[in-house]
Design brief:
This protein is an alpha+beta fold. Helix content is 54%, strand content 19%. Strand 3 and strand 4 form a beta hairpin. The chain is elongated. The chain starts with a helix and ends with a helix.
Length: 203
């Protein structure tokens, strides 16, 4: 009987140990997600880079675009909010953190910016001298900031599974994907793709 009790006690201890290990990994993953969002809410891109590869969160496939991802983040994150709903351990190095993300709805913002950009392009098409690339990029940034910084902008809320992985250095970092990036940027990626397709169909 003592032997049976000893075996049961060992099994229970092992189960408890595994349970605590899993909880520890989930806690670290959630801490990473919290750290990332705190950095973004403070528009501290350098701090955010400790938790996620910011370069993976691309607003456009063309890295040469005059409107950089960093500029987008700094102008739309003033309304950023989030809530961790649940977390699930996938394996020893991966945790899925289901999160509700609220941020500025960028679809109408991008629509207004696109209209203003087209008007600017037409107004300068025959000007002499032509604006330089630097001048054009600066004007694009100014128009984007103006469209994205209005006080009465609507917000959009999306629920996404954020993947957090353990690196070779035993650090936990968010692994970005298109769904997460689009939710974080207020639908900017989807809106950009829709505008691009609409523009192509008119050609």
């Amino acid at each position: 009987m003592k032997r049976i009790k000893s075996i049961i006690a060992t099994i229970l201890a092992l189960v408890l140990l595994l349970s605590l290990t899993g909880c520890g990994e989930i806690k670290k993953a959630e801490t990473t997600v919290n750290g990332m969002f705190t950095a973004f809410k403070n528009t501290d891109i350098e701090a955010a880079a400790k938790y996620v590869d910011v370069d993976e969160i691309n607003a456009s496939e063309d890295s040469s675009d005059s409107i950089s991802t960093e500029l987008v983040m700094k102008t739309i994150f003033n309304k950023l909010d989030y809530k961790i709903i649940s977390s699930e351990k996938v394996d020893d190095t991966t945790v899925k953190v289901k999160t509700e993300i609220t941020v500025t709805d960028m679809k109408p913002v991008l629509g207004e910016f696109f209209t203003n950009a087209m008007q600017y392009a037409f107004s300068t098409a025959f000007s002499n001298p032509q604006p330089t690339e630097e001048e054009t990029n600066k004007k694009m940034e100014e128009m984007f900031i103006e469209s994205a910084s209005k006080e009465d902008l609507a917000t959009v809320t999306n629920e996404v599974d954020i993947t957090v992985v353990k690196t070779e250095n035993n650090e936990w970092k968010v692994k970005s994907d298109d769904t997460f990036a689009d939710a974080l940027l207020g639908g900017l990626i989807t809106a950009g793709e829709e505008l691009s397709k609409a523009f192509e169909n008119q050609e």
